[in-house]
Specification:
Elements (H helix, E strand, L loop, with lengths): L25 E2 L10 E2 L7 H7 L5 H10 L1
Antiparallel strand pairs: 1-2
Length: 69
């Protein structure tokens, strides 16, 4: 869920919004009910993530997504 943050809120980065080249997948321990539990270099290719969060992707990944579609 994306919302305004308040002082004291914990924030995180979803690497699938900005990266496609890190070498290994890794476990996420953020504790969110919405967590994918594993982060991979191909998560940006997941259609429901693209649909829900496209506006938040890096320009680099937006271009890759548009090229594939």
């Amino acid at each position: 869920m994306i919302r305004d943050i308040k002082a004291g809120d914990e924030i995180f980065v979803d690497y699938s919004f900005c990266e496609s080249s890190y070498p290994n997948s890794f476990a996420c321990n953020c504790g969110s009910d919405h967590c994918r539990k594993e982060i991979t270099k191909d998560d940006w290719k997941i259609k429901n993530i693209q649909t829900k969060y496209f506006a938040y992707f890096s320009p680099y990944l937006k271009a890759k997504i548009e090229k594939v579609d």
